[in-house]
């Protein structure tokens, strides 16, 4: 390179750098250098491939092909060496590969997980990297996580989860060109170490006890043998479905769901006074006090709202399980807030979607959002060492706490030594 060419090159680099343009894109100052390095590396791979054995088979070079590569540095064209028998499999730039670096694929998947549409992602990549990527290629890139989704849906589970919340979300999905309503079932569990886990994600036409039975059976087949407390909404037949698979489980119906369902049948002029009386029931100190207040509720409102009172009485056994525990545990199990909070975080991302193109497109986005949420689940639930002790006392041998042989204090796994009784 002459002095003049060197000066022109340096000026081009500086101008592009100051203007924010890609130095490696189609017109980038460094593009010829990157192109040259990649092509030389591919030639070296071909030289290695055409060893004495290959040449003995009659294989040799057979010209060059062309390929446009997209990368985090921009897009550029390269020449690829070819062999007569088409047995050359390059490692640097594989056959049919158009995305040079995995980091660009990771960026695209990350943007998709934030709820960005393919159009928005394509525009963002074009602006940032001067690279055009079609919707088809974007879909192929996000499809890379499908094996991870299937692995999550089939992964082995622990034999015991202390608390399990089961709830469904509802979405619109295109099926054969028509919009269909689908239920996305999510199961959130707490291990005996007090850590949250998403146990599974399932899609069905609608939410119902029959499909929940299939979900529970799948959890059992994947290794989940026992649930101490199952927290659910008030879906008819749900309790029976749970107990048919996990007969020892305590089923706690969500108090908040019960209240919401009750208020649907209470006249607006009575709701404030009714709620004042109802709070005395579900906020009672003990179950006995709660049952006395439930009788008072029936005496005052039973004739006017018999359906509401009958619903509380019919479901009372499953609504009142939380009275067996101290306040911190009651707060965890008397509602499905844990899984609903999880759902709220998912909806923040999915709310911009009118309808998903397929079940898998829905699962892809929910899976990516879930992975982002799980990054925050780094510690056990607050005061879990005290909670697990209460569970251990109540449920005994159903909680196989392991003895840590490496600890001189030999404290059971899941119970900190400083908190032991």
TrEMBL record:
Protein name as it appears in the record: Mutator family transposase
Any GO BP: DNA transposition
Region Disordered, residue ranges: 49-89
UniProt-recorded Gene Ontology molecular function terms: DNA binding; transposase activity
Presence of keyword Transit peptide: no
Role noted for this protein: Required for the transposition of the insertion element.
PROSITE patterns (UniProt xref): TRANSPOSASE_MUTATOR (PS01007)
NCBIfam families: transpos_IS256
Keywords from the UniProt entry: DNA recombination, DNA-binding, Transposable element, Transposition
Similarity-based family: Belongs to the transposase mutator family.
Compositionally biased spans, kind Basic residues: 58-70
Keyword flag DNA-binding: yes
